[in-house]
C-alpha cells in the first residue's frame, strides 16, 4: 500500500505578503489549488492560502517541443489536479497580462510554476463545487469553504487579544482555575464526571465563581481568564453545553468599579471592531433598573434600538381587568409603525395575524387574557373584555396610548411583582417589533444600543424549568447564591426576601444579554444565612459549601466581578444569530458533535471501573 509522506520545501511567502515588489522573484507558497482550467495551450488555476491575501492566478504555458520532458510533465500535472488539492507551489512571480485569463484575485501579478509538490489527494467520493453545501458532520469543510466562519474565528482571536491587553492595562492577572470541580447547587444542572473511587464524582464547573472568590481571599487583587463553563441545559440558539466566558473579579471593589472597567473594555472592543456603529455610544453607559425595564419594555434585556412602543400602566383606565386583585396591574402599548407605509391595512393585518397565531405567544394557564386590536379597524381579539369599562378602542387608545390609525394595541394584566426575565406582554411586544422590522413595517435605530440593567430582585420564585439551588423554601437566587443584597435591603431578608434587591447588574447589547455581574457576599455569616435560612438548602447539600464559608471567614475582602458570554459577544459583533457560527466545533441541538460522534457509547467493562452500570 502506498502512503503519501511528502518532502516539500518551506514557504517563502504567503499570499498576503505578495505585491508587485515580488515580480521576477522565485517563491514557494503553501496553499490549495482551485478552478483548474485548460484554455487552448494554457492551464490556469487559482492559489488560495487563507492568509488574508487575494487569490493568486497560476499560469502554465504548453512548453515548446524542444523543452525538457519535466516542463511538459509539470504542465500536464497542473491540468490534472482536482480542485482544493493542497500543494507546495514553487515558481516565478511575473507581471500579470490583463489580456490573459479572467480578472480575479490579485490583478497585478501571477505565478508561473516551476515545481508542484502535491501534499495530499482528495477522496474520489468528495465532490467540491462552487455550490457545495456541507453539513455539521463535515465541519472541517464548512470552515474551509465558508469565509464567514473563518472570519468569525479570526475575530474571536483578535478580540481576545484586545481583552487581554485592556485588562492587563488595568492591573488584572490571568489565572487558570480547575476544570474538575465538585457538585454544588449554584443554579444550573451540572455535568458529573465519575472517578475510580466508589461514590465519588467530579462536576464540571458551571462557572469559575467559587474559585475566583477564593482567589480574592488569596491576595490576588484583580483576576481574569477565558474560562470554559459547562451547563446541562436546553440548547437554544444562544446556548451550548460547553461555552466560554470572559471572567473577571476585583477585590476591595464594588459594582461601580467593575462597571467602569467593563465600560473601558467595551469601548475599546467597539472602536476596534464596530467602527462607525460605536460613534453614538456615550460613556458612562445608560443604566436602567430591573423594575423600569420590566414596566417599560416588558423585558430585563430590552432592545433599545426599538426605543418606542413603550408599555404603560393603564390600571386606572381599566380597573375591572384587575378582577378585584390589588396584586395585579394592567399594562398596554401601541406598536408604532412607519409613517410612510404602502398599503398599511394589508401590511398591519398580515403582521397581526402572523404574530397572534403563534402558539408560543398564547396566554398560558394562570396568565390573564390578552386583548389586542388594530386601532380604527374591526380586527380585534378579546376586545369585548373592554366593554365593562366603556373603553372605546378608537377614542381611548388615541388619548391614553397615542395610538394612530392602523397601529396594533395590546393590553394585558399581570402580577405587580414580576418574576423572571420578561412579562407575557413583553414577549408579545418583542415579537411584534422583530417581525414588524423584518416586514419593514416598524423602524429600528441603526446604531448599537448598550445598557446596564441594575437592581435585580435578589430572589425569585422557583420554576419547574430551572433547578435553582435545590432549596426547600420555594425561592432561588436570581443570579447565584453568592450575590450580595443591597445594604439597605438586608432587613428585608427576614421579613420579605422577594422584595430585597441585589447588587446585580447585566450588560445588554441590542436586546442580548452579553454579561452579568454582582457584588459578592464576603461575610461568611450572611452567606450561610442566605443558603440555610432563606433558600433552605438541605443540610447535606449545605456541607458542599463548607470550603467557601471557611475561605470567607479567613478575612476575605469585599469583592465584585462579572462574566461576559464570550461566544455570544463574538456572534453579536459578527452579525450572526447563533453562537454555533463562532465556535470552531460546536455541539448541535442534541448536544452532539456530528463530526466526532460525541457523546459516544462506553462499554460495560469500562463502566465497571467507575462503579457504574447501564440500566
From TrEMBL:
GO biological process, one term: aspartyl-tRNA aminoacylation
Domain Aminoacyl-transfer RNA synthetases class-II family profile: 156-586
Pfam families: tRNA-synt_2
Gene Ontology molecular function, alphabetical: aspartate-tRNA ligase activity; ATP binding
Gene3D superfamilies per UniProt: Bira Bifunctional Protein, Domain 2 (3.30.930.10), GAD-like domain (3.30.1360.30), Nucleic acid-binding proteins (2.40.50.140)
InterPro entries: Aa-tRNA-synt_II (IPR004364), aa-tRNA-synth_II (IPR006195), aa-tRNA-synth_II/BPL/LPL (IPR045864), Asp-tRNA-ligase_1 (IPR004524), Asp/Asn-tRNA-synth_IIb (IPR002312), GAD-like_sf (IPR004115), NA-bd_OB-fold (IPR012340)
Cellular component GO terms held in the UniProt record: mitochondrion
Highest taxon, organism lineage: Eukaryota
Keywords, ordered alphabetically: Aminoacyl-tRNA synthetase, ATP-binding, Ligase, Nucleotide-binding, Protein biosynthesis
Coiled coil: none
HAMAP family: Asp_tRNA_synth_type1
Family in the record: Belongs to the class-II aminoacyl-tRNA synthetase family. Type 1 subfamily.
Protein name (record): Aminoacyl-transfer RNA synthetases class-II family profile domain-containing protein
